[in-house]
Amino acid sequence: MRALAAAGRVEPVLFTDLPVHPVHGLERIPEVRAPVRPVAWWQHHWLPAALRRERIDVFHAPAHWGVPWHSPVPVVATIHDLADRERPELRAPAGFDVRARHAFEQWLVVRTARRIIAVSHWTAGSIARHLGVDPARIAVTVEGAAPAFDAPADRAQAGAIREQLGLREQYFLYVGGFDARKNLGAVVRALAALPAEQRVTVAMAGEGGAAADALRREAVAVGVDAWIVLVGAVEDTALAGLYAGALAVIMPSWLEGFGLPVVEAMHVGTPAIVSSAGSLPEIAGDGALVFPPDDPKALAAAMRRLATDAVLRDGLAAAARARASLYTWAAAADQTAEVYVAAAR
Known about the structure:
By secondary structure, the chain is an alpha/beta fold. It has 14 helices and twelve strands.
């Protein structure tokens, strides 16, 4: 939204039922807020009236939830992935009411939206295949990285962060959640497949919880817990330092609709090791090594290559940094504005 406002092509207005956290920096964006409950009443009754009253031209649901049953204006909705349909066996446990609402919201997007935004070509194909959407209704837009990831890499700061977290000089980095879709067991098994003298620490940044505890137990069971460091949630400035000091970011997921950590690493100039599943090869391009997500030995081989081959590492890093210009919020705003124009016709 900040990038859309800065570009000046459209005037974004935020409709919300709750206060927006200051971390998002949206104070200068006009806001229309009403804490109406239940949420369904807000979505299907209050919101259409507010869109009409505020003379809105196009309504955008940026995470596909929240589309009103009868919208007085053209609708655009973003679908980030269809993980529940691509890999239902990896879906987090949820009650029938949650699953039913999720399916209803997807159906509502297909029924209502003039344009559907996908965040990768892979996701666009998934939407067309699983939801039966005409590809002509689907537009692909990119995602970007926060400003902290474009600051010049401060090696001293990166070293200080590394020491603070107790990391060895060489380490790989994972950033994200710990749910089954992330396939983090592959990292544990890859470390186990390597001789002890060839293992390199893998720092894992993100909210952990029970899934992280289970991963730690798995690492203990195979004797590689000394090479897995769970660092918890890390704010962007420190995270940029972690990326800068890493040999590579590892994304072993069974499925990703986009893969934002790969883009954050690109902006810092750090290569990636990504699975061949979902959108990851598309996003990483020639700035990464690719391995099958069901082959931990292939991941182990990729880790060994990057840890021992500085020429390969530098080449991938240069390619990653070159690709960073493709993935910016300014580019995303420009592409999104084009979708709004098309939807309003």
